[in-house]
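In line with agreed milestones, work has continued on tokenised descriptions of protein folds. One protein thus recorded appears below exactly as we store it:

>
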Amino acid sequence: MLRIEKITVDYTENPVGITRRPRFSWVMASDHRNTIQVSYHLEIASDPLFSRKVLEVTKETDRSVHERFEDFSMESLTRYYWRVEITDNHGERSGFCAPGSFVTGLLGQEEWKGEFVSAETEEDKDNSKGTYLRKQFGKRGKVKEAYVCATALGLYQLYINGQRIGQDEMTPGWTSYQKHLCCQVYDVTKQFREAEAECCIGALVGAGYYKGEMGFLHTRNNYGTRTALLCQLRIYYEDGSMEEICTDESWQGLDSPVLFSEIYDGEIYDARMEREDWCRPVAQNVLWRGVSVIPFDKSALTSQFGGKIGCMERFPAKKIFVTPKGELVVDFGQNMSGWVCGVLSDTKEGDKLELRCFETLDKDGNVYTENLRKAKAGLTYYCKGGSRERFSPHFTYMGFRYAHIISSPCEMKAEDIIAYALYSRMDQTGYFESSNKDLNQLWSNITWGLKSNFFDIPTDCPQRDERLGWTGDAQIFCRTASYIMNTYLFFEKWLRDVAADQTPEGGVPHVVPDIITPNLGKTQDWLLSQGSHSAAAWADVAVLNPWNLYLTFGDRQILEDQYESMRAWICFMESHGEGIVWNYKLQFGDWVALDAEEGSYYGATPNDLVCSAYYAYSTGIFAKIAEILGIGEDAAYFGALAERIRKGFGETYFDPDTKGMRVQTQTAHILALYFDLTPEEYREQTIKGLTELLAKENGHLVTGFVGTPYFTHALSGSGHLKEAYELLLKEDFPSWLYQVKQGATTIWEHWDGIKPDGSMWSPDMNSFNHYAYGAVGEWMVRVAAGLEIQESEPGYHRALLYPRPGGGLTAVTGSYESQYGKVECSWKLTGNRLEVKYRIPENTTADIRLDHVISVEDFDGLEYHVDENNTLTAYAGSGTYHVCIITKGEGH
């Protein structure tokens, strides 16, 4: 039986706020193996019964993802319904799937009639209070549909008739405001159908990223001095008329109970100032004040229909205890980003709750906050008085596992306090499990590093006074992240800001949004005063992240969108280079590598080698991208440039006498091997050199941000799978599992963030929730589990299923929810008997590979070939397969 199990528009089920030509995708299911779609029939209509069709397409094709239609014309703020039916190569027809829908946003800048309005004045420039904005109006009749578009200079929560609209938090997030600002669209039909004739729309607005203090340079008013709201409500009436309520000078403003709220320092809230009727259509007994219009170029507005932050998971308190110093502490059991919320009982007016969030205890079991630097990460709540009073933040968030209850008006019980993990909405797509419980905990730590830091932008850490979009961290972790979660919309949004913040000559900032460059004159920061953009491995995010998204999702759109940004970065390197070597102001090199000199953050690998390696790597990938997009002139030019850099790299960094590398660091060898920069005549000695450098450290890494992500790849790709597993599974310092053994629930910034004696690495730069080193998850998936993408058919359209058992593991399962459906590879090793189960989605195929094959017990009907090296290969269509072989190899 053929059926359609899931349909999406632009990676989202039933999105609201589409403004570009949508991409339609569907997941097939069949009882047959080797199922391929041969045609589809797709309909789009303006009604759920499809009596008013606006597009009907029949096409003979196997394409079932990212289908776009040039002749589909949309109207603003309109709901469309769509459905699809397919036929397959077995002669079966699915019948139409259950319809999905999507709602458009405002399609043209000229359709924005509202203005940004503020309840603040210039005297509030250093004030981070919250303000109310409201507009009361009357309905003109029976409502058919209603949609609202909104955004803010600052952060906002939207209300209609006293009811909170949507479940998004911290909207509109953080962008390079004047160049790119996201707006959100909500379907509010239900609110107006149920409403009385008199209505009220309003918002609570806070300082947020726009005017609050941000970055370790501690600058505020980075984008403006007054918060403001832009809102446009469109109501369609049953009689065919339409009405729009827009923010303008007729709105009213008032100070809110949010006395102070900022990203780093937390929130002060006075419940005594609450007015339950502030957004209800009733007579007001307070003196509302007028608002002012804030000029803003609306061409910067883009609609955000996915990836918005939400309260995604809840963690009831595991325990409340008293530290040796007498501090009352709540343990939630998991390091995360989010809020501490709860209930206070039998309070009196003016009672105060005060708490502070933090990540870890010190070696004596007491509260440790030094690594927060200047971030207060606190919540102060003044009670209005009552039997049960709820507290929750609004426009801040913290990175924490623990909460220190500094003062409370009542006894705090575990059942009365809860933590909510906030992160950008992304479906979890990838899973990994093994026979090693510590490795499984490492996978959980990697996943929680992602969840904690994919907070509208890819932050470096969620706890201290930083939380910036460091490009290097995002670059090295992108492939891992895009396996674990569907990151397409998340990165698509952030990469717009990467392009927006590039310098006129194509330089890429160290952090995006770039709040460092405009503030360099205000600080003498020892590091960033040397340069605020264009560091190798960091700036290469402009090329490597779009490429990894293309590989993972098979969607050319991201390459098309980012092409000019990518090209500008390659040209920047070329313009600042002499031969193969380029250099520009501040370079981070192999940041915080353990082979650094005492007291230095810079690893021992020379910056010029790192720059040259990434220059070659990114240029070569960009040439591939130009070829994929059919831009032949660029493909030829940059392909030739990449080849010249590779040749020059060999001439510069290899010694023809020793046949080895001139630079004797682990990272130098890793980059040369993984980036394919090693001339063939030097390859054997380079591999030997890497293993010798590893053995010199007793099998431990001493790499930093640049070398670590590729270390296991360089080993397994060079015939040293055994050493790769041993490196992954080390339990003493420095290693991934050392952190696990220390009780970590996320990835640390430093290998020894907490030393074996319980002391701390450093108070000034010691995050316990820093995802970068979690990039090893990519190797766990691609090599240990064997789920590999093939460039020629990306997005797992033709996967390579190539598990490589080793490390004493007896079982591994890896699965990924691709755009076509679940692809899975799991293996179980009993002695030398290897059982492997495969799941290949409908409308896809896979190449199967197994090494060290002695004999085949059962290959489940598939044809296979075993070569002289005892490597088995097979080709498989969709379906599930259970195979069994006898094997013996280096990895076992």
In short: The first helix runs from residue 189 to 193. The CA atoms of residues 132 and 254 lie 5 Å apart. The first strand starts at residue 2 and ends at 9.
